[in-house]
Specification:
With about 425 residues, the chain is mainly alpha-helical. It has 2 domains: about 25-200, MFS general substrate transporter like domains (Growth Hormone, Chain: A, Up-down Bundle), CATH 1.20.1250.20; about 220-420, Up-down Bundle (Growth Hormone, Chain: A), CATH 1.20.1250. It has 16 helices and no strands. It has helices at about 15-20, 30-50, 50-60, 65-75, 80-90, 95-110, 115-145, 150-180, 180-200, 225-240, 245-255, 265-285, 290-310, 320-350, 355-385, 385-415. Helix 5 packs across helix 6 (about 95-110) and helix 10 (about 225-240) packs antiparallel against helix 16. The two termini are about 15 Å apart.
Length: about 425
């Protein structure tokens, strides 16, 4: 069966220093996709960090309505990935991804004209649908152009995305400080322009022809793949960790510790910097299913250590709380690095080449549901219950990590040709 592997040669001996050091990919599709990722996430970082403030302070919507609309959008977005991924598998991922970028540009720009709750809900739902669809259609592109070391390339793209998102968030901070409608509209415009620019960059990628599905293969094979669904459930539960530093920790710092408020931003900065600097290194050797399962197991232990350290800061003096929480954030970030590496490896390793988009959509569905549930779960355990809740949440992560290797082995045994999935 024809696979989706695209052989990317190693940089020539006379390549530039950034290429030789792995700071940027060699010229070709991988560099194009990396640049597109940076531009996309730079624009997203601009608006994501200030979206709630725009809708409440500039548009004038109550916070409860904004929360309701964003929650509805998150739920709606979870259903888009699977059918769009299947469409990308059958029609070509580049073309479908381009379409989602155009839709995101239009719907994002239209947010500038929001003045009622229902228009707000419609636009954020359409934007989230296109976002989820874009993720599913981008998966086959990453697989197709991943080269001879796809795990390393996926880790590199994640580092690029974190770096760009951080840069966008810092720029958004200027607009938040100005707190004027013109400043918020500039962020919306910048985000919409980033989608147009990303689409223009993606047009430079060669088109990937669809990979023929084997005979007697059903249309929705990912939904019937029970082992893969089990892996997705575990990954979704572990993915709740992504909300710990951006949701639970800020509330904990302000309401339960003597740490200064400025540490809220510092914690996110520490996390982002470590991910950008270490994701590629942390992903080395995580290029098989067993290795990915072991990485998930290690990540659960790291999350428990990080959350235990954070939980211990409630009655500490301010300077000591900052020190201990910094160690906790670092430990949590190590877990995040391992979880991301293992999760991405399984997402691609266990998916048949002809259905990568569909399987990426399944993974996106699990991630989306985890993100929807995360605020309620973390609010109950970490905020309402306090230190015992932090420890309980860490214990849940450990249990998921311990279960991961066995579930991964089960899923790997059911692959018709394990060597095909890269």
């Amino acid at each position: 069966m024809r696979t989706a592997k695209t052989s990317i040669p190693l940089p020539p001996p006379n390549s530039s220093w950034p290429v030789a050091r792995g700071l940027i990919p060699a010229p070709g599709p991988r560099r194009v996709l990396a640049i597109a990722t940076f531009v996309n996430m730079l624009g997203s970082g601009l608006f994501m960090a200030s979206a709630v403030l725009f809708f409440t302070r500039s548009v004038g919507l109550p916070l409860t309505q904004v929360a309701l609309g964003l929650g509805a959008a998150a739920l709606v977005g979870t259903v888009a990935g699977i059918p769009t991924g299947h469409l990308a598998d059958r029609r070509g991922p580049r073309e479908i991804y381009l379409l989602t970028l155009v839709i995101r540009a239009v719907t994002t720009a239209a947010l500038a004209f929001v003045h009622t709750f229902w228009l707000f809900v419609v636009l954020v739902c359409l934007t989230q649908l296109a976002h989820s669809a874009g993720g599913a259609s981008r998966g086959p592109l990453v697989r197709g152009f991943g080269g001879t070391n796809p795990a390393s390339y996926r880790a590199y793209l994640r580092s690029v995305a974190n770096l760009a998102g951080c840069g966008g968030a810092l720029a958004a901070g200027v607009a938040v400080q100005l707190d004027t409608r013109a400043a918020y509209l500039a962020l919306i415009a910048g985000n919409a322009i980033s989608f147009v620019a990303c689409a223009a960059i993606i047009t430079r990628l060669p088109s990937l022809p669809p990979i023929p599905a084997p005979q007697m293969t059903g249309r929705w094979i990912a939904l019937r793949d029970k082992p893969y669904m089990a892996v997705t459930v575990l990954d979704a539960i572990m993915g709740i960790q992504g909300q710990v530093l951006v949701f639970a920790l800020p509330v904990w710092i302000i309401s339960q510790t003597n740490a200064p408020r400025w540490f809220v931003g510092m914690a996110v900065l520490v996390n982002t910097a470590l991910v950008a600097a270490l994701q590629v290194r942390a992903s080395r050797g995580i290029d098989t299913s067993p290795a990915a399962g072991r990485a998930m197991r290690r990540s659960g232990l790291a999350f428990l250590i990080g959350m235990a350290l954070i939980a211990a800061t409630s009655n500490m003096p301010g300077w000591l709380a900052v020190t201990v929480m910094t160690l906790g954030v670092a430990a949590h970030t190590v877990g995040e690095l391992w979880h991301a590496a293992g999760s991405l490896e399984l997402q691609f390793r266990l998916a048949p080449a002809h259905a990568q988009g569909q399987y990426t959509g399944i993974s996106g569905l699990g991630t989306g549901l985890g993100n929807v549930a995360a605020p309620s779960i973390l609010g109950l355990l970490c905020i309402a219950w306090g230190a015992p809740g932090w420890l309980l949440m860490g214990g849940i992560f450990v249990a998921v990590g311990l279960a991961a290797p066995a579930v991964v082995r089960w899923s790997a045994r059911t692959r018709p040709d394990p060597a095909e999935a890269v």
